[in-house]
Design goal:
The complex is a heterodimer of chains A (1030) and B (111). Chain A is mainly α and 1030 residues long. Helices cover 71% and strands 2% of the residues of chain A. The longest helix of chain A is centred in the first third of the chain and has 32 residues. Chain A starts with 12 loop residues before the first helix and ends with a helix. Classes of the chains: A mainly alpha (1030), B mainly alpha (111).
C-alpha cells in the first residue's frame, strides 16, 4: 500500500511512458489542440498524470464505492413502483449502512494523518480530474453524513405517509447523500463545484418534494436561487484559485496558502468563495431561504439542516481555512456575517410560533457561531468550529426529528396550540429536553463543551479592532437568547395544561421512529460527559488534517475550573431563564416573527428583486430592443452574420485569384446553370406554387449531388441522392396540410410603398450574402491546401481503422464519438416530430378530402358498377405492383451499401436511408393500413436498438482496457460473400444504420398517419356542429 | 471549376437568404434547404476541388493528400446532410403544427 502523507505529490515519471491506445494518440497528435485547451498559466499538476497506471488498491476501491453506492441506490430506488415504499426504505437503509461501514472501515487508513486518494484522469488537459481525497476532516464529515443519513432513513420509513411517492423520496435522499459525500471527498476544486451544484439541485427537489404545496415550491425555488447564485460565484472563485495556484488539485491548493493570500486577486477570490459558503450556510444577509425550506418533509429538514446541506458552506470554509484565513479581509467579512447571523438568528428564533421555524432560526444562529469561530483565524478557534459542527449536527438532527414526531402525532407544529404533551409522550419529551439542553449549552452535554471553547476564544484578542472587542458580548447575548428559545421549545410543547384543539389525539410514536433520536441523544450525553474517551481521537484526526503542523494543544475536559467562559455561560443561562419568564405570556399568543423586524422580511426583498429583475426589467428590455416577430429577427441575425464575415475582409483586405476562364469546365458550368435556375426558381415560386418550388429544390439538390460525384466525393453523392428522395417525400406529405394560396394578378398593384421598400432591402441583403459567400469560397478554393490533420487520417485509415473508405473510417472510428452525438440528435429530432404530431390538430379548412380523391369518389358514385373507393384503390395500380416487388431489391441494396461501407462508398447512414425508402415505397403503393397489416414496423424500437448497439460497441472497448469507442479491425473470410472487413466499427455502423432507419421511418410514418386521423377529425367536427345546431 | 462552384454557392445562398426573410413558413423551410446546400458545398469546397481522387484507399495501402482528396470536409458534410434532413423534417412539422394551432401559415402565427 503506497499512501502518501497529506499534501505530497505523487510523481512517477517511469509510469507515464506506458503505451497509449490508438485513439489516445489521435487526440494527442492533433496539432494545436492540446496547447489551445490550456487556460492561461494552468498546467496539469504532476499528481494527475501518473495515477491511471498505478494498480488500484482496495482502499481506493472502497473510497470510490462510497461515492458511487448512493447514486446507484438512487437509480434503483426510483425504479421501485410508488406503492412499495418499504422496499425503497430498506434499500436506502442498506445503502446508507454500507456507506457508513465503508467510512468506518477507512478510519485506520487515514488516522495517522494519511491522505487516501483515488485519481481518474477525466480531462487532464484542463487540469480536471476525478480525484477523491479522504483525510481526517473529510472522514469526519463523511461519517457524519452517512451516520445521520442512516438514522434519518430509519426515521423517514415511519414518517412518510403511504400516500406519498415514497420511492422518489428515498431516491432523491440517496442522491443527495451521494452529492454531499462528493463535496466532502472531492480532491479537485472543479469536481467540488460540480458536486456542490448537485447538492443545490437535489436539495431543490427535496424541499419541493410536496410540490402540490405552494409553500414547498416557493421555498425550493428560493433555496435554489440563493444557493445556486452563491454556487456560481464560488465556481468562479475556485477557477481563480486554479488560475493563481496553477492547479485545481486540492493538495496543491492547500500547500499554496501564501501564494493565494499574497496574490492581488486574493480579495476577489475571497469574496466569491464566501458568496458560495455564506449562501449555502444561510449566513446573514442570505439567511432567509432556510426558514422557507422548512416546507420540506421533516426528515429532509433533519438531514439537510443538521449535518449536510447547510454544513457544506461551513465545510468549505474549514477546508480552505488554512489557505484563505488570517487576513483582515477574511476577519471582517466572515466575522461580520457570522456575528450578525449568530445574534439575529437567536433573536428571531425566540419569536417563532412554528416548531420547525424555531429550529430553523436556531440552525442559522449556530451556523453563525461556527462562522464567527472560523473568522478569528486562530487554530484553537478552528478546533472549536470543527467540534461544534459535529455537536450541532447531533442535537439539531434529533430536535428536528422530535419536532417531526410532534407534528406527526398531533397534526400541528404551532406552539400556540401545542401544550402539555409530556403526559402523552413522556419518552419523546425527555429526549427532546436533553437535546434542547444541549442546544442551550447546559453542562454535561456536548453543546456545552463547544460553546465553552467558543467563549474562551471570543474573549481572546485576535485583532485590535471594534469587532473583536464586541465578540464576547455578542456571544453572551446570543447564548442567552438560545437558552430562552430552547426553554420555550420545551415549555410550550410539553408543559402547561393539556391541549384541547389538536387535530389528532397525541400518543407516543412507533418505537423505531424514536430510535434514531434515542441514539443521537445518547451521543450528546456520552460526548458531553466523557469527551476525551469518545470523540477525542476522531476530533484530533480531523483537526490535524486541517491544521497540520499548526494543530494547537487543546483539552476536551468538562471542567476547566472557575474561569471567565464559565461565568459567561452562567450569565447566559440565568439571563436566558429570566428573559423567558418575562416573555412567556407575550409569546403564548403573539403573532409569528420578531417585533422589530417583522416587516423587514428577507423573503419580501428577495421576491421584489426577483420580480424586478426577471419581470420588469426583462419586459422593459424586450419592449425596447426585442420583437416577437420572426422576420426582423432574421434580418438582424443575417445582417450581423454578414457584418461579422465582411468586417475582417474589409479591414485586412483580400485578393481573390485572377479569374481564368479557360479553367471553366463547360459541362459543370452548364450543370450549374440549370442548378442555379432551379434555386432561383424555387425562391421565386415558394409562395404560390409550392409543388413547383419543391421540384425545383430537388433540381438544385440533384445538381449538388452530381457535383459531389464529379469532385471525388462518392459517399456524399450517395447520401445526398438518398436524402433528397426522402426529403421530397416528406415535404410532399406535408403539402396537404398547408392552406391554399392563389396568386391574384392585382397583387402587384396593391403593394404599398413600405412593402416594396422592405422587399428591396431583403433582396439587397440576400445579394450581399450571396456575393460574400461567392468571394470567400472562390478565394479559399483557389489557394493551396495548408497542412491539416487530413493526411493523418489518410495515412492511418487502413492501418489503424481497418478500412479503406477514409470518410467512413473517420465517421465510425476516428471521430466515432461525434457520430454517436449526431445519431443521438437524429433520434431526438425524430422523437420530437413524433411527439409534435401526436398532438397535431389540422386546421379546419384542410380537413376535407383532397380534391383529387373527391373527383375519384364522385366518379365512382356516378358509375353504378363501381363501389366508392375503387378508383383510389386502383390509382397507380401498375406502379404500385412494381413498388411492392422492389422491397426485397432495395433491402438487398441497403445491405450491399452497409457491408461495403467500411471499404467503399456506402455505410450505415446511406444504408439506413435506403432501407427507409423501401418502407416508404410500400406505404405509397399500398397505403398505411395495408402495410401495417403485413409488416411489423416498430421504428421506435429500431431507434433504441440502434442507440444501444452503438453505445454498447463504444463501451465494449472498456472491457479491453481501451478508451471509449476504440475500434478493433480484422478481415474475415465468409462463405459466399468472401473477404469482408470485420472491424468492431461495423457493429457501431450497424447501430447507426438501425437508428437512421428508425428515425427516418418514424418521421415519415408519423406524418403519413395524419391522413388517417383527418377523417376522424372530420367526424368530430361534424358531431360538434350537430350538437351546436341542436 | 472553382469559379463555377463559387458562383453556385453564391446563388444558392442568395436564394436561401431571400426566402429566409419571407413571411410564409413554407418559404422559410425551402430557404433553409437551399441554404444548407450552399453551406454543404462551401464546407466541401474547403477541402479544395479534385477530380478522380476519392478518399478511398487501395486495399491494404495508405494514402496521402497527393493522391487523394481531403476526407475531413466530406465526413463533416456527410453528417451535415443527414442532420439537414432532420432539421427540415423538424421545421416542416413545426410549421404544420403551428398552422394547425393558429390557423395561419405566417411565421409569427398571425397575419
Amino acid at each position: 500500500m503506497r499512501l502518501p502523507p497529506a499534501g505530497s505529490e505523487q510523481s512517477d515519471p517511469a509510469n507515464r511512458q506506458a503505451p497509449l491506445p490508438a485513439r489516445f494518440r489521435v487526440i494527442a497528435s492533433r496539432p494545436g489542440t492540446a496547447r489551445l485547451a490550456f487556460p492561461q498559466g494552468l498546467q496539469p499538476c504532476p499528481a494527475v498524470r501518473t495515477i491511471e497506471e498505478r494498480p488500484i488498491e482496495t482502499t481506493q476501491t472502497l473510497l470510490l464505492s462510497l461515492i458511487l453506492a448512493p447514486f446507484l441506490g438512487s437509480l434503483l430506488a426510483i425504479s421501485i413502483p410508488s406503492g412499495k415504499g418499504t422496499v425503497a426504505a430498506w434499500l436506502a437503509g442498506a445503502v446508507a449502512l454500507f456507506c457508513l461501514a465503508i467510512s468506518a472501515g477507512l478510519y485506520p487508513v487515514i488516522s495517522g494523518g494519511h491522505v487516501l486518494r483515488y485519481d481518474l484522469a477525466w480531462m487532464p488537459e484542463l487540469g480536471l480530474n476525478f480525484t477523491l481525497r479522504m483525510d481526517g476532516f473529510a472522514w469526519m464529515f463523511s461519517s457524519l453524513v452517512t451516520a445521520i443519513g442512516l438514522l434519518v432513513v430509519v426515521y423517514a420509513r415511519y414518517y412518510m405517509a403511504a400516500s406519498d411517492p415514497v420511492p422518489r423520496f428515498f431516491s432523491l435522499f440517496l442522491a443527495f447523500m451521494g452529492a454531499m459525500l462528493g463535496v466532502v471527498l472531492s480532491g479537485n476544486l472543479i469536481l467540488l463545484a460540480v458536486f456542490w451544484e448537485l447538492t443545490s439541485i437535489i436539495s431543490f427537489l427535496l424541499i419541493g418534494y410536496w410540490y402540490h404545496n405552494a409553500a414547498a415550491r416557493d421555498g425550493a425555488r428560493m433555496a435554489l436561487t440563493v444557493t445556486g447564485t452563491g454556487g456560481l460565484c464560488m465556481f468562479v472563485g475556485l477557477m481563480l484559485i486554479g488560475h493563481v495556484v496553477g492547479s485545481y488539485d486540492l493538495d496543491t491548493v492547500l500547500n499554496s496558502g501564501n501564494v493565494i493570500r499574497e496574490h492581488p486577486l486574493y480579495t476577489t477570490i475571497l469574496v466569491l468563495i464566501l458568496m458560495g459558503a455564506l449562501t449555502k450556510s444561510a449566513q446573514f444577509p442570505f439567511h432567509f431561504w432556510l426558514p422557507h425550506a422548512m416546507a420540506a418533509p421533516t426528515p429532509v429538514s433533519a438531514y439537510l439542516h443538521s449535518a449536510t446541506l447547510v454544513k457544506a458552506g461551513v465545510f468549505l470554509l474549514i477546508r480552505l481555512w488554512p489557505v484563505m484565513a488570517g487576513t483582515d479581509a477574511w476577519f471582517w467579512i466572515v466575522g461580520l456575517a457570522g456575528l450578525s447571523t449568530l445574534l439575529l438568528g437567536a433573536y428571531f428564533a425566540i419569536f417563532q410560533q412554528d416548531l420547525k421555524g424555531l429550529l430553523a432560526y436556531s440552525t442559522i444562529s449556530h451556523l453563525g457561531l461556527i462562522t464567527v469561530l472560523l473568522s478569528l483565524g486562530s487554530p484553537l478557534a478552528a478546533v472549536a468550529a470543527i467540534f461544534h459542527t459535529m455537536n450541532h449536527a447531533t442535537f439539531k438532527a434529533s430536535l428536528f426529528m422530535a419536532a417531526g414526531i410532534i407534528d406527526h402525532e398531533t397534526g400541528t407544529r404551532d406552539m400556540r396550540r401545542l401544550s402539555g404533551l409530556f403526559r402523552y409522550m413522556p419518552f419523546t419529551a425527555t429526549l427532546a429536553m436533553v437535546a434542547s439542553a444541549s442546544m442551550a449549552g447546559v453542562p454535561l452535554l456536548n453543546g456545552f463543551l463547544s460553546k465553552e471553547m467558543f467563549f474562551a476564544e471570543a474573549i481572546e484578542t485576535h485583532k485590535y479592532n471594534a469587532l473583536d472587542t464586541l465578540t464576547p458580548y455578542v456571544a453572551t447575548l446570543a447564548s442567552m437568547f438560545s437558552v430562552t428559545y430552547s426553554l420555550r421549545f420545551i415549555h410550550s410543547v410539553f408543559f402547561g395544561p393539556p391541549a384541547t384543539d389538536l387535530p389528532k389525539s397525541p400518543h407516543e410514536p412507533p418505537h423505531w421512529m424514536r430510535a434514531p433520536i434515542e441514539f443521537l441523544v445518547l451521543a450528546c450525553l456520552v460526548v458531553g460527559i466523557v469527551p476525551g474517551y469518545t470523540i477525542g481521537p476522531f476530533l484530533h484526526t480531523a483537526v490535524q488534517s486541517v491544521l497540520g503542523e499548526a494543530t494547537p494543544t487543546y483539552s476536551l475536559a468538562v471542567w476547566h475550573g472557575w474561569n471567565l467562559p464559565l461565568f459567561m455561560s452562567l450569565i447566559a443561562l440565568v439571563g436566558g431563564v429570566v428573559l423567558f419568564l418575562l416573555m412567556k405570556n407575550y409569546l403564548a399568543t403573539s403573532v409569528e416573527g420578531p417585533p422589530l423586524f417583522r416587516r423587514l422580511e428577507g423573503q419580501r426583498i428577495f421576491e421584489r428583486v426577483l420580480v424586478t429583475l426577471s419581470w420588469k426589467w426583462a419586459r422593459w428590455i424586450e419592449m425596447r430592443v426585442g420583437t416577437r416577430r420572426l422576420q426582423p429577427q432574421m434580418r438582424v441575425l443575417v445582417s450581423v452574420a454578414l457584418a461579422a464575415g465582411a468586417l475582417p475582409l474589409l479591414l485586412n483586405g483580400f485578393a481573390p485569384a485572377d479569374i481564368v476562364l479557360r479553367s471553366i469546365d463547360p459541362i459543370l458550368a452548364l450543370l450549374w446553370l440549370i442548378g442555379m435556375i432551379c434555386a432561383i426558381g424555387a425562391a421565386y415560386q415558394a409562395k404560390f406554387h409550392r409543388l413547383a418550388a419543391l421540384v425545383l429544390l430537388g433540381g438544385a439538390g440533384l445538381t449538388t449531388c452530381l457535383t459531389f460525384v464529379w469532385l471525388s466525393a462518392p459517399d456524399l453523392a450517395v447520401t445526398q441522392l438518398l436524402v433528397e428522395i426522402v426529403t421530397t417525400v416528406l415535404i410532399l406529405l406535408g403539402l396537404r396540410w398547408l392552406p391554399k394560396r392563389i396568386e391574384r394578378h392585382d397583387d402587384h398593384d396593391v403593394m404599398t410603398m413600405p412593402v416594396r421598400l422592405r422587399r428591396v432591402r431583403d433582396f439587397l441583403l440576400a445579394i450581399f450574402c450571396g456575393v460574400g459567400m461567392m468571394l470567400i469560397s472562390y478565394t479559399v478554393m483557389t489557394r493551396s491546401l495548408p497542412e491539416t490533420i487530413s493526411s493523418y487520417f489518410l495515412e492511418r485509415a487502413y492501418s489503424e481503422g481497418g478500412g479503406t473508405n477514409v470518410v467512413n473510417v473517420i465517421l465510425v472510428d476516428f471521430r466515432g464519438f461525434d457520430t454517436l452525438g449526431e445519431i443521438a440528435v437524429l433520434c431526438i429530432v425524430a422523437l420530437t416530430v413524433f411527439a409534435l404530431l401526436l398532438r397535431f390538430r389540422p386546421a379546419t379548412e384542410s380537413l376535407e378530402t383532397p380534391q383529387q380523391q373527391q373527383v375519384q369518389n364522385a366518379f365512382d358514385d356516378k358509375h353504378p358498377d363501381r363501389a366508392k373507393g375503387d378508383s383510389i384503390a386502383e390509382y397507380l395500380f401498375v406502379p404500385s405492383v412494381i413498388m411492392r416487388w422492389m422491397f426485397p431489391a432495395i433491402g438487398l441494396f441497403a445491405a450491399f451499401l452497409f457491408f461495403r461501407g467500411h471499404d467503399l462508398p456506402g455505410g450505415g447512414f446511406a444504408a439506413g436511408i435506403t432501407m427507409s425508402i423501401a418502407f416508404i415505397l410500400q406505404y405509397m403503393s399500398g397505403g398505411t393500413r395495408w402495410v401495417e397489416e403485413r409488416l411489423r414496423i416498430h421504428p421506435l424500437r429500431w431507434m433504441s436498438i440502434g442507440l444501444i448497439v452503438a453505445t454498447a460497441t463504444g463501451l465494449g472497448s472498456w472491457l479491453f482496457g481501451y478508451p471509449f469507442l476504440t475500434s478493433h479491425a480484422q478481415y474475415a473470410d465468409l462463405p459466399l460473400i468472401g473477404k469482408m472487413p470485420l472491424a468492431s466499427a461495423i457493429l457501431f455502423d450497424l447501430g447507426v444504420f438501425s437508428l437512421v432507419l428508425g428515425a427516418t421511418v418514424l418521421i415519415l410514418i408519423a406524418l403519413a398517419h395524419q391522413s388517417l386521423r383527418a377523417p376522424r377529425a372530420q367526424m368530430r367536427a361534424a358531431r360538434a356542429a350537430a350538437k351546436e345546431s341542436n | 471549376m472553382e469559379l463555377v462552384l463559387s458562383v453556385a454557392i453564391g446563388v444558392l445562398t442568395a436564394s436561401g437568404v431571400w426566402l429566409l426573410f419571407r413571411p410564409r413558413t413554407y418559404q422559410v423551410v425551402i430557404g433553409l434547404s437551399l441554404l444548407s446546400y450552399a453551406v454543404n458545398l462551401f464546407i466541401f469546397g474547403m477541402g479544395r476541388l479534385r477530380l478522380n481522387a476519392p478518399p478511398v484507399l487501395e486495399q491494404g495501402g495508405t494514402g496521402g493528400l497527393l493522391t487523394h482528396t481531403d476526407p475531413i470536409p466530406q465526413a463533416l458534410v456527410l453528417t451535415a446532410i443527414v442532420i439537414g434532413f432532420a432539421m427540415t423534417a423538424l421545421f416542416l412539422v413545426v410549421l404544420l403544427a403551428s398552422r394547425g394551432l393558429t390557423g395561419t401559415d405566417h411565421v409569427d402565427g398571425r397575419e
